[in-house]
Design brief:
Chain A is mainly α. Chain A folds into two domains: 22-112, RNA polymerase sigma factor, region 2, helix turn helix motif (Rna Polymerase Sigma Factor, Chain: A); 114-206, Orthogonal Bundle (Arc Repressor Mutant, subunit A), CATH 1.10.10.10. Chain A contains nine helices and no strands. Chain A has helices spanning 24-34, 38-60, 63-80, 90-108, 122-126, 134-148, 153-164, 169-176, 180-198. The longest helix of chain A is centred in the N-terminal third of the chain and has 23 residues, at 38-60. Chain A starts with 23 loop residues before the first helix and ends in an 8-residue tail after the last helix. By secondary structure, chain B is mainly α. Chain B folds into two domains: 3-56; 113-206, no CATH class. Chain B has helices at 3-13, 20-30, 34-55, 60-75, 90-122, 153-161, 179-184; strands at residues 128-131, 189-194, 201-206. In chain B, helix 1 packs across helix 2 (20-30) and helix 1 runs parallel beside helix 3 (34-55). The longest helix of chain B has 33 residues, at 90-122. The relative contact order of chain B is 0.08. The chains are: A mainly alpha, B mainly alpha. The interface between A and B is large, with 62 and 50 residues.
């Protein structure tokens, strides 16, 4: 089939984290936390604080806001955990809370300024990961964060939940309270915008 | 399929987000379109780059701070904030209480309105209570103006002049009965006027027959 034969959908890249696997331990912790067990809730925070902070940072663009948002997420979870249906997966519910908190932060901001990517060396982005230095890696992460800021809020939410956090399209739809068709639409536009920004085209690309 | 229509699908195809039939159409297009093949390569690199964010080492100081703040907020909820599980029932109870109070207020307001509406056409006096007593004696002639028995002079004077009294405690709202009301009242009846002063009660004997 020629050179393109090597091009396969990178399904293997699906970051199928622990959030996507049925986890009996996690269910037990959630159940105990729902019944008012403070220690179980602390375990719940410990189990999800990293991913919640990471998501908030990706959605909000800076660590300070992300820290405040993560704190608010867990406080809201604590207040409303009794509303959670234990027959469902906990992670999509948790991320729905996280997305809502981040949307509130966005509403408080007048506008999130999109920083230019002019000072980034395109070679850094093109360089294979195994050849890059620590500085290159830091630049790469920064470039991705900056590129995410070019997306609309909804596109960013979909791309972060699907491509960074590894939720399925159905789980993203549940987390955002929309249909899978809407998720795919935002996902497609978001990925095209991102590749345009990261490849230096500054738009949708070719 | 044109490149313009295929590109959004390519963006989904690189993540395995397309149904098999559409995926085959995209693959068929890429097989002979160099531009879309390059786009797919870039999109693939973009997804790899995004995965870097998930692998990034967490900011431990930030995580520590978040956990400390959360646990501190749970241990010492701010005054007035219903943030503890013990108060998790509060919203529903508050809503029910508010709903009950609102219903009570509506019922009370409706009762007042109904009472006023019932009094208005029958009795021209706002604070009068209509009695069905029909004393055979003391019925005034139909042509005469209504008699005010046992009415104190001060009240009578205010009725005649229409000027509000000096004393707000003794200021009954008095008005003359309308012709329609007098016609409606075919039988003699008694109007009891209750003033703000509990010691002063006015009985008004009215003969509703005309001519």
């Amino acid at each position: 089939m020629g050179a393109y034969a090597r091009l396969e959908p990178i399904v293997g890249l699906e970051p199928e984290g622990s959030k996507n696997r049925p986890d009996a331990d996690l269910r037990g912790i959630v159940e105990r936390a729902r019944s008012g067990d403070r220690e179980a809730f602390e375990q719940l925070v410990a189990a999800h604080e990293r991913s919640v902070l990471r998501t908030a940072r990706a959605l909000l663009g800076n660590l300070e806001d992300a820290r405040d948002a993560a704190q608010e997420v867990f406080l809201r979870v604590f207040r409303h955990l009794h509303r959670f249906d234990p027959r469902r997966e906990f992670a999509p519910w948790l991320y729905r809370v996280a997305v809502n908190v981040c949307r509130d932060v966005h509403r408080r901001r007048a506008r999130m300024p999109a920083a230019p990517l002019d000072d980034l060396d395109p070679a850094v982005l093109a360089r294979p990961a195994n050849q890059e230095t620590d500085a290159d890696a830091a630049d790469r992460v920064r470039a991705i964060r900056e590129a995410l800021r070019l997306l609309s809020v909804r596109e960013r939410e979909v791309v972060v939940l699907r491509d960074v956090e590894g939720f399925s399209t159905a789980e993203v739809a549940r987390s955002l309270g929309c249909t899978e068709i809407t998720v795919r639409s935002h996902l497609s536009r978001g990925r095209l915008k991102l590749q345009g920004a990261l490849s230096g085209a500054g738009g949708r690309g070719r | 399929m044109s490149c313009r229509r295929v590109q959004p699908l390519v963006a989904l195809w690189v993540g395995g987000d397309l149904a098999p039939r559409r995926a085959r159409r995209v693959e068929a297009h890429i097989a002979h379109c160099e531009a879309c093949r390059l786009l797919a390569e870039r999109l693939r690199a973009t997804r790899v780059a995004l995965a870097v964010l998930a692998e990034e080492a967490p900011d431990r100081a930030a995580l520590q701070l978040v956990r400390q703040r959360v646990l501190a907020a749970l241990a010492h909820p701010p005054a007035g904030a219903a943030s503890s599980r013990a108060l998790a029932w509060f919203p529903s109870v508050a809503w029910k209480g508010a709903l009950g109070a609102a219903l009570l207020a509506i019922v009370a307001a409706a009762l007042v309105l109904v009472q006023r509406a019932a009094n208005r056409p029958e009795t021209p006096m706002g604070t009068a209570a209509l009695s069905s007593a029909r004393p055979s004696e003391a019925i005034p002639p139909p042509t005469r103006p209504p008699q005010r028995l046992e009415e104190p002079p001060a009240v009578r004077q205010r009725v005649a002049s229409g000027v509000p009294g000096e004393s707000p405690q003794r200021r009954p709202r008095v008005a003359r009965p309308s012709p329609q009301a007098r016609e409606a009242a075919a039988e003699p009846f008694v109007i009891k006027i209750v003033t703000d002063d509990p010691d002063v009660v006015i009985y008004w004997f009215v003969d509703g027959k005309k001519g």
